[in-house]
Every structure is written in C-alpha cells, then in structure tokens.
Amino acid sequence: MDLTQSILSYGLRSTATPTSTNVFNDVEIGVAQTQERFADADVIYSLRAVMAGSASTLSIAQDTGICTATAWVAGAAQVETATAAGTITASGNASVTVTSAGMTGSPLAISVPVILGDTASVWAGKVRTALAANATIAARFTVGGTTTAISLTRLSATVGGLPIRSANDATLNIALANGTCTGITAAPTSANTTAGVATSGVTLYDGDGKDFEGNTLGSASVMYAHLIVLTSGELTFEDTHAAATLDLLPGKFLKSYNDGYTTYGNFVFSDPPDAPSAVEFTFTVLAQE
C-alpha cells in the first residue's frame, strides 16, 4: 500500500457582526481552515470499536496498530414470566403490579378490566394488552406470552448496530391479584425465566495490524497524528507515551505531533469509572515507517 496526499485538516472560526451603533465591518474570530501535509507518511491505520462495561479496555500498540481487547460478551435479555390462574367469578378489575429497579413509578400498579366468566387464558390476554399500552412498561420491556403466560423481556439499547443488554434485575416482578374482581388465584411472585446478563467487552472492526490489502503494516518509527471520532457514550483515552489521559464526550478529537515523536507506548481506551456506558468510536493514526 503506497500513501500520497497525507493531509491533516483543522479549523474553527466564526464571523462576528457588530450590533452597536455606528460600529461597522464583520470580524473573523478563531482559527482559519488549515492543512498540514506529511510527505514522508507511509503508515496509516484506522479501526472502529464498540465497547461496553466499565471493566473493558482496548489497547493499541502505537507503532504496529495491533490491538489487545477485553473479550466481547453479548449478554442476554432478562425475561420475567407470571402465570395466570383462576376464572373470573365477579366482574371488576384485576390488579397487576410490576416492580423493576430504576423504573419510573416502581412498583407500578395497573388495573385491568375483566368480566364474569373470563378464563385464565382470556384475562391473561387482557393483562398483556394493558401492559403493552402502558408507556412506562413499553419503554422498558417487550410484553409477550401466550395462553396463561404474561412475560416481560427487558429491552436492549443499540450502539454501533449491536444490542447492549442490562445486568439481571433481581427486583423484577409481575404480581397478579384480584382488585375489584373475584376469581383470580393470587400470584405475588413471578418467575425469572431468563436471567439478564450484561453486555461487556470490545467488538473490534480491523485493528489486526494489517492494511486494507491484507498486508502487515510496517512498524512506525515517527508518529504524526491521530484522530478519535466518538459517536456515543463517554470514553477515557490514555496515551502512555505522552503520559496523558483525557475523558471524552461525543465529538471529534484531533492530535498532531508536529515533527512527530519516535518513542512509543500504547493508546488505551476505557469507560470512565464514574460514568460507565456503551461507546462507539473510530480511531485513525498517521505515521512514518
């Protein structure tokens, strides 16, 4: 792979228009669009990563681009299931109480109209409909089940096209009871059908120390610049060579080393311990072999 036109571009400016009386002419404030060219650059590598879990890290050897990362664990969505029992003997409302840590209004009480003669399968269907129509429930769970089963499946966030699942919520529960109706066999405790497993680790796209043609990258001897584009979450970035650490919010972060440097360490990415979150970012490095 041969490189030409290795260019770093940056700039930040705005036009200020005076509003005071008898003050004229616009003023340009900031740094004009600027380009730096690196005629000797012959190594470039770029990768994309999705990282989840506060203990996850990605370390990149600065000279070779070879990555070492925490293994990806896809996790599992938690499923909680209540089972309806009993035929309605007097019309009224069934009482359904959903408890979940961190859910607004938890425990959330929902009244479900039922009528005389509703079998367990029939009124369970009415409960599923009522739960699915509740905005708080729908924002957190998918409502499912058939016949007498009433289930809640925890929704997953999506980062970089990957589902990010939450840890198991031991408080999650669906309680069934008579409200103003009669005939329901009380079921105060539901079953944790599938335990939730939090997504963690790093999914890495590229980062194998090879160029797009499959050739091993040359070992860099002069580092010129790197660019981080953080699209979601918060990220801690450490340059072990420079002994510098930054906590980053979504945005673009460009670093130029002017004449370059010739000793190396690692680029290390991790979640800030005070604000763990799933993150997606790309990282590009320009250097000379």
Descriptive report:
The chain has about 290 residues and is mainly beta. About 5% of the residues lie in helices and about 45% in strands. It is built from two helices and 21 strands. It is elongated and about 85 Å long. About 30% of the residues are buried.
Query: What is the assembly state of the chains in this entry?
Result: single chain
Q: Please bin the fraction of helical residues.
A: under 10%
- Strand segment tally: 21
Strands side by side in the biggest sheet: 15-3-21-16-19
SSE layout:
Blueprint: E1 7-16, E2 27-37, E3 43-52, E4 57-61, E5 67-69, E6 79-83, E7 92-99, E8 108-114, H1 120-133, H2 135-138, E9 141-144, E10 149-154, E11 157-159, E12 162-164, E13 173-178, E14 191-194, E15 201-205, E16 222-232, E17 235-239, E18 244-248, E19 251-261, E20 266-270, E21 279-288
Antiparallel strand pairs: 1-2, 3-15, 3-21, 4-5, 4-20, 6-10, 6-14, 7-8, 7-13, 9-10, 11-12, 16-19, 16-21, 17-18, 17-20
Quick overview of this protein structure:
With about 290 residues, this protein is mainly β.
Give a quick set of tags describing it.
289 residues; mainly beta; five-stranded antiparallel beta sheet; 6% helix
